[in-house]
Amino acid sequence: MGNTAVHHDDHDHKPQGFLNRWVYTTSHKDIGTLYLVFSLIMFLIGGAMALVIRAELFQPGLQFVHPEFFNQMTTVHALVMIFGAVMPAFVGLANWMIPLMIGAPDMALPRMNNWSFWIMPFAFALLLMTLFMPGGGPAAGWTLYPPLSLQGGYNVAFVIFAIHLMGLSSIMGAINIIATILNLRAPGMTLLKMPIFVWAWLITAFLLIAVMPVLAGAVTMLLTDKFFATSFFNAAGGGDPVLFQHIFWFFGHPEVYIMILPAFGVISEIIPTFARKPLFGYTAMVYATASIAFLSFIVWAHHMFTVGMPLGGELFFMYATMLIAVPTGVKVFNWVSTMWEGSMTFETPMLFALGFVIMFTIGGFSGLMLAIVPADFQYHDTYFVVAHFHYVLVTGAVYSIMAAVYYWLPKWTGRMYDERLGKWHFWLSTIFVNLLFFPQHFLGLAGMPRRIPDYNVAFADFNMLSSIGGFGFGLSQLIFVWILIKCCLLEKGAKAEARSWEGAKGLEWTVPSPAPHHTFTTPPEIRDEDLAHGHVTH
């Protein structure tokens, strides 16, 4: 490897000029960077919308915005965070790291890779434009349930076109990831020697290809109901609005796992590194990931227990949902077992990984509560649900993305980030994110409904705490932005070694930091000591 590293540096010819480097690029590293930067911008925009929501809810009564605009904020906040922040961040990590982890020179379909990124900014331009149109943006919640979603004006067409473009981008990205993993692994990198992050993405990519067309079908039916006088979801014309919920959630539940399986992969890379022990139960982790993906297709109606399903249907979806807790529990126990008696250190990536394990588990427990049909009648459409999915998506998906950025940043930039600021970022985020979402469990149990701009004075105290937490969490993210600016743009920080973390295993740590523009032009030799799971025998 030593010789190839020198060889790479000599031939590290980056494209010259801004257009060639960033707009026409086919390099997996540059496209990965584009995805990550785009997702950070969307995270800040979506966060600003969340702060509008929390400012309005700081006390009872109508303070700052009209109820209609409040509903636009809840709707667009969700669409931006899911399709603009979390998913592109994971695709950016996949683009950057998968070729490095499997010893591939690049992604299998580099031109399509460029195309799948550049569709995204246009999709979000269309979505965000609707907020400035007569009649405003979509205001029916991110789930776009008819008939409410069909009462919008022009925004309906724009939002649906934007969703089609996002779906197109996702499907192209997923095909590329599958093609890369199945065809470009270095000789000797068998499937069961791949890092868990790669496995998680392989499985996620199949989920994406399976469910994005379902979403496309659902929103196309909305489009024809609105503009072409069809009656898919219009009861007056023989349609059924509940049919939309079935189609939507058949996409929507696997979508939740599309946002969490890559997070499981990230955490499974970080914990063994900082515990200085191989991952416990590698093969069990692979099978657990696949089981979660399979089960995610048979639980969709747990989002709609209150629509008047037959009892048999409610029982089926209740038991299937509880079953998903089993492979998820396997993962949590394996992470804990990996740390057990390890020589742990607590750098920022490990702190975010530990925060993930603890707080994601809280979200998992409230999910089990929601799976119980008679209890769900009490929780449904209250702030309890809001608390549940934000524990899964903020302290779950977003925390894992931050952990990944801190973990691989030295490999991307060749510099170590500011560790002290990283720890400040973690602790402030963690204190405020719990202040933000934990009280919402109590609000929901007391009966406060979701998606309302005003509320009973009985809910005032917990809402005030929640809003203080929201502003604290939002401002804490500015530390993260400053850390990135310092490391990436100002190029401050100690030079990073090729193996930036003591205990880090995997092919990505055998190339220099920063990773040269072209890596693995000749396939690397796969040595067991370079692999996090090299000890696994098959």
TrEMBL record:
It is found in: Cell membrane; Membrane. Pfam families: COX1. Its main location: membrane. Pathway: Energy metabolism; oxidative phosphorylation. It is a multi-pass membrane protein. It comes from the Bacteria. The keyword Metal-binding applies. The chain crosses the membrane at residues 34-55, 75-96, 117-136, 156-184, 196-223, 243-267, 279-303, 315-336, 348-373, 385-409, 421-442, 462-485. Its EC number is 7.1.1.9. GO terms for molecular function: cytochrome-c oxidase activity; heme binding; metal ion binding. GO terms for biological process: electron transport coupled proton transport; oxidative phosphorylation; respiratory electron transport chain. GO terms for cellular component: plasma membrane; respiratory chain complex IV. Cytochrome c oxidase is the component of the respiratory chain that catalyzes the reduction of oxygen to water. Subunits 1-3 form the functional core of the enzyme complex. CO I is the catalytic subunit of the enzyme. Electrons originating in cytochrome c are transferred via the copper A center of subunit 2 and heme A of subunit 1 to the bimetallic center formed by heme A3 and copper B. Belongs to the heme-copper respiratory oxidase family. This is Cytochrome c oxidase subunit 1. It comes from Rehaibacterium terrae.
